[in-house]
């Protein structure tokens, strides 16, 4: 009997209010962590899109620059080059690039082309590379 009375007098433990407050605090912490995970996923997707765009733009520029002439480079991309056309759209799979080519002019033999490759994004370009390629006049011309 003494043990039962002693057990009833022992008031150690948590009250219902304390348990409810701790569960509410745990819920708030979980909500914040969930939001951070969602934000990290979105940031990862954006970084992946940007990296893919930079790789695609770089690959496109390298194809043009490694060819003997701008015309050969454009043909390697499957595009028909014309000095009268200044802007081209190149699509490869899910990738899309706008290629702008302009003769910069100048007093030297040959042609200095300015080549701009832009991979468009939703609001602003994901990647843009601007470079120049000089083509000497061959002895045959």
Question: Could you walk me through the main structural features you see in this protein, from its secondary elements to its overall organization?
Answer:
The chain is of the alpha+beta class and 141 residues long. It has one domain (15-135). It has three helices and four strands. It has helices at residues 2-9, 16-66, 70-76, and strands spanning 87-92, 95-103, 111-119, 127-135.
Keywords:
alpha+beta, 3 helices, 4 strands, four-stranded antiparallel beta sheet, 141 residues
Secondary structure elements and their pairing?
Layout: H1 2-9, H2 16-66, H3 70-76, E1 87-92, E2 95-103, E3 111-119, E4 127-135
Antiparallel strand pairs: 1-2, 2-3, 3-4
Helix pairs in contact: 2-3
